[in-house]
Write a structure and sequence with these properties.
The chain is an alpha/beta fold. It is 50% helix and 13% strand.
């Protein structure tokens, strides 16, 4: 995954909407790389070959398929998921996404929102021990005394995934003991002393 370009998958069956959104992004002053998919299933098949920073989805494609959407999201944990809204949707459905952009949003607003993710990804890549959001969640639960199985149940991920996150945490922080990881989590303000 290139650090200098924000890689965006747009899951949109409408050619008109896809052309408009992709042209808006490509003409901006920011470094966006966009790729189109007609369905979430198509994205899932392709995602094993290429990693994306962001996925922008037409919420109509997951309406009444929320369980399947959760399964796909769980299988692609490093991607940030957003909804591109141009009709009415239930607020509960939109709450399933990390961010929402609307057809009525200004070009600047859309570009700024997506660029903020680019700044975060560059910061994370430049940080020698920068944990992903999911790794930070696992670390916090570890410091609270949860077992791998309990963490997996709490985050709706497999025990194998928890173990992988733990290995990544140890590699990135170079800290192997739970007390050391707890001090690390406190120093990074992931937990407070009152916890």
């Amino acid at each position: 995954m290139s650090i200098d370009r924000l890689s965006i998958a747009i899951v949109e069956p409408s050619s008109i909407v896809w052309e408009g959104l992709s042209n808006l992004l490509l003409k901006s002053q920011h470094h966006f790389a966009v790729c189109r998919f007609g369905s979430v299933d198509e994205l899932q098949r392709f995602a094993s070959k290429r990693q994306f920073h962001l996925v922008i989805v037409n919420p109509a494609l997951i309406q009444n398929r929320e369980c399947e959407f959760f399964r796909i999201r769980k299988g692609l944990p490093d991607m940030v998921w957003g909804a591109f809204v141009y009709s009415l949707f239930d607020s509960e459905l939109l709450a399933r996404f990390d961010f929402v952009i609307s057809l009525t949003d200004s070009v600047e607003s859309i570009v700024d929102k997506l660029s903020s993710f680019h700044a975060e990804s560059v910061h994370d890549a430049n940080s020698s021990d920068g944990l992903t959001e999911r790794e930070a969640e696992v670390l916090v639960l570890l410091t609270k005394g949860y077992s791998n199985k309990e963490i997996a149940d709490k985050l709706n991920i497999s025990v194998h995934t928890v173990i992988s996150h733990r290995k990544n945490i140890v590699e990135k922080t170079d800290i192997k003991s739970l007390p050391g990881l707890t001090i690390y989590a406190i120093s990074k303000k992931l937990i407070c002393l009152d916890s």
